[in-house]
Amino acid sequence: MVGIRAFTQTMRRLLPVAIVLATSAAHADTKPADQGVDFISDAKLLYRVAACGGTDAVDAKLDKIVTAHCKAIDKKLGDFKKAYFEKNHDWFTKIVPSDAPKTVVYPFGGGDLISALVAFPDATDITTLSLELAGDPRRLKTLKPSQVQVSLGGLRAEIGGLISVGSNTSENLSNGQRNDLPAQVSSFLMGLVAGGYEPVAMRYFTIDDAGELHYLTQAEIDASDAEAKEKVQKDAKKAKLDPEYKASSHLKADWLSPNFALAFSNVEIQYKKIGEDTIRVHRHIAWNLGDSYLTKHPEVIRYLEKKGQVTMLVKGASYLLWRADFSRVRGYILDHLAWMLSDSTGVPPAYAKPAGMIQETYGKFDGAFLEGSQTSKHNEDMIELWKNQKKRPLPFRFGYVDMNKQAHLVVTKPRPK
Predict the structure, then answer these.
(1) Strand 125-130 vs strand 280-286: parallel, antiparallel, or unpaired?
(2) Which of 293, 341, 296 is nearest to 317 (CA)?
(3) Are 40 and 24 in contact (CB under 8 A)?
(4) What is the DSSP letter of 82?
(5) 345: number of CA atoms within 13 Å, CB side?
(6) How distant, in Å, are the alpha carbons of 141, 160, 173, 325 from that of 412?
(7) What is the per-residue pLDDT across 212-268, written as a single tens digit (0 to 9) for each?
(8) What's 278-308 look like in SS3?
(9) Of residues 98 and 30, more confidently modeled
(10) Are 221 and 170 in contact (CB under 8 A)?
(11) Phi, psi of 350 (to 5 degrees)
(12) Distance between alpha carbon 54 and the CA centroid of its chain, in Å?
């Protein structure tokens, strides 16, 4: 087994988000079946109990709890499915080009696999990136019924907005890091349920210096568990000495520290349409996309660049792409988008136009949703962008609304040569 001290040194050298063995070689983006621990049994249990997918019988002690939980989830997922996968399906079919790449990148995506599946149901490779860690899938089978009930209630609150309007708050996403159930993984599985998919494999990974994926072995996970336990003990001692002490996230200081090992930061879920054989893949990468962090930890950009030109989705991104200190991820987006759908939190005209992009607007936009962004020059440019184009209807909300609660979207794509 890898020693805790060596494990920690390697983690710090490669990326603080996860753990990589110092002796591990670069691994390709696809893998033989024997690479990394496959948590598919845990994924299937979460798919049934937390995401309410399938009809497998559950433990008799949990039957009433799961039934009550799924009654609420089924109602919300059913309404979401009718609104987005059915009623407004044709809108996306008409807007998204048939030749758009089937590889999708969704920066600032949180637990929002479901929106990517709505917009790009034919995608075969989807990557979401955000501050949230995927989560430890193993705990459900160890929890007492009362703990399951509390955790499911917390889960409904933490991802409620996502399965109601396809968006969620930073507070809810942060709180999800402390749930005994993995909030992000559960959210991804709910997306699969809504879209008619099922999981077939689930592994956790890190990214090495060259931007290659490394799938975690049992020895690495055991070492990460040991380090997490040690950290919990240290935090408890600090809290005892200082009642005001609160452990913060290693990715963002004002976010809650996760209550699970860092090995469970990045997840790969292989899935397929129920009744079909084609295997698709979703990867979630927990990463801070701000310039200061990416300068020190550019591995994720190297990984994404290997995908070439991709389809992109940006929404509910807190207008971070308007800011000067998110220039590196903005540069990646502009260099690699073949076609992008976003709300107003996407790339503003002042950056898109010089990069050779054209933008087409849908719905109405009178100003930024967040008050702090309403005084920005980019806000004025976005208002002008909508004013200067013909009116294109948008019959549903998909991401942020504007300051007057109006739905809006914009397509960004390279100018035809």
Answers:
(1) parallel
(2) 341
(3) no
(4) I
(5) 25
(6) 45, 29, 28, 21
(7) 999 999 999 999 999 888 776 666 666 666 666 455 555 445 545 567 899 999 999
(8) CCEEEEEEECCCCHHHHHHCCHHHHHHHCCC
(9) 98
(10) no
(11) -60, -25
(12) 23
* Residue from 206, 215, 212, 185 nearest 38 by CA: 215
The pair of structure tokens assigned to 24 is 């591990």
What pLDDT, on the 0 to 100 scale, is given for residue 25? 34
**Which tokens in the block code for residue 20?**
């990589």
Secondary structure class of 242 (helix, strand, coil): coil
Mean pLDDT, the chain, rounded, equals 86
> Which residues fall within 8 angstroms of residue 244, CB to CB, at 6 or more apart?
none
pLDDT at residue 256, as a whole number: 54
Question: 190 vs 117, 159, 331, 383, CA distance in Å?
Answer: 11, 10, 32, 35
CA distance 150 to 17: 28
Q: In terms of DSSP bridges, do strands 213-215 and 197-207 run parallel, antiparallel, or are they unpaired?
A: antiparallel
- Asked if 104 contacts 313 with a C-beta cutoff of 8 angstroms, the reply is yes
Q: What's the number of CA atoms in the CB half-sphere (13 Å) around residue 352?
A: 27
Domain boundaries, given as residue ranges, for the chain:
4-94+135-284
For 257-300, the pLDDT digits (tens) are 567 899 999 999 999 999 999 999 999 999 999 999 999 999 99
> 123-127, 179-183, 328-332: lowest mean pLDDT where?
179-183
Q: What is the pLDDT of residue 248?
A: 53
Specify burial of residue 276 (Cβ count, 10 A radius: 0-12, 13-18, 19+): exposed
What are φ and ψ of residue 310, in 5° steps? -135, 165
Is pLDDT above 60 for 145?
A: yes
* CB 215 within 8 Å of CB 204: yes
Helices (H), 100-244: 113-119, 145-158, 162-165, 170-175, 183-195, 218-241
Q: DSSP state, 243?
A: T
CA angle 135, 260, 6 (to 5 degrees): 115
Outline where 120-169 has alpha helix (H): 145-158, 162-165
Res 35: pLDDT: 79
Which strands make up the sheet holding 213-215, listed edge to edge?
213-215, 197-207, 266-273, 280-286, 125-130, 103-107, 310-314, 337-342, 408-414, 357-363
